[in-house]
User: Which sequence fits this backbone?
């Protein structure tokens, strides 16, 4: 099988991982990215202009006459170009903000014109009036695995005997709600009478992220909306406790995981964070993370591809 992949940027880590795993299964993938000289942030939809996406349409049209079996549009804003080409069945993957954010109507409209649609969580599925496949991005358990906390902190230069809470996003990314994270940490510190360091991390090579997860006492997720946040699955793989808002598939992922909590209010998040820090023990999230590996994601995507071919 040969697939034409459409993507906003070919450098997106989990997209590269997805293509690599599919190739292991004998599925060849050519990648066509939306043209621009700017850096794309899929969480803010700020790296492309309307003209960039218009220029993308004839590029996809021409490519669709190549020797491909189907086109896979990754991220909702690539979908119009996919559904406008005349030759190939379309699989659309929606990642979260592209469906639940500013440009959600684009993804919703395009989803009605695709053979198959993939979403990251059951919550996302409720936004669409059609059958979909729920396939979250997988986490590499070889990269993300537990290591001694003191060793990780020494490598990062973090104080060994203080609390450290990880917020692995840019504070300026509004959907991640950094202001609430600050309130939660400040209130938890006041309740404990101890210093809590809120560690924001962005722009680091992905290979270094296991170091941050293992150095932290807890991952704090205060997002307003999510699909299937990779940071939560990565923390789970490292047995790092998680305290999170009830977004995307987080509640499902953390079901039965020790030292991890999903709460609906700031006060609930504070109470949960205090409980995690006072306990001072790792979670058992790695056990649950074994079901969401990149290899399993690729296996399920192949099934979707074959169904799209049958439907076309």
Assistant:
């Amino acid at each position: 099988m040969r697939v034409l992949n459409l993507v906003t940027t070919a450098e997106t880590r989990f997209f590269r991982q997805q293509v690599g795993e599919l190739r292991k299964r004998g599925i060849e993938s050519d990648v066509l990215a939306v043209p621009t000289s700017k850096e794309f942030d899929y969480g803010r939809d700020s790296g492309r202009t309307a003209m960039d996406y218009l220029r993308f349409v004839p590029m996809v049209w021409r490519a669709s006459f190549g020797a491909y079996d189907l086109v896979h549009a990754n991220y909702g804003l690539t979908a119009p170009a996919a559904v406008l080409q005349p030759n190939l069945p379309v699989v659309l993957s929606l990642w979260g903000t592209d469906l639940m954010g500013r440009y959600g109507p684009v993804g919703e409209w395009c989803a009605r014109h695709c053979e198959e649609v993939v979403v990251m969580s059951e919550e996302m599925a409720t936004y669409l009036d059609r059958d979909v496949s729920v396939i979250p991005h997988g986490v590499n358990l070889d990269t993300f695995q537990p290591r001694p906390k003191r060793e990780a902190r020494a490598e990062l230069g973090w104080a060994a005997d203080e609390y450290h809470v990880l917020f692995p996003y840019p504070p300026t990314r509004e959907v991640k709600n950094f202001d609430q994270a600050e309130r939660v940490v400040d209130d938890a510190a006041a309740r404990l009478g101890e210093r809590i360091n809120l560690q924001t991390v962005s722009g680091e090579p992905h290979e270094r992220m296991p170091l941050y997860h293992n150095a932290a006492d807890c991952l704090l997720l205060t997002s307003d909306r999510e699909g299937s946040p990779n940071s939560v699955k990565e923390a789970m793989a490292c047995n790092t406790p998680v305290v999170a808002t009830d977004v995307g598939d987080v509640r499902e992922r953390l079901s039965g995981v020790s030292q991890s909590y999903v709460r609906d209010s700031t006060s609930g998040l504070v109470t949960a964070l205090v409980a995690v820090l006072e306990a001072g023990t790792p979670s058992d999230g790695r056990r649950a993370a074994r079901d969401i590996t990149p290899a399993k994601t690729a296996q399920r995507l192949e099934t979707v591809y074959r169904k799209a071919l049958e439907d076309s």
The radius of gyration is 20 Å.
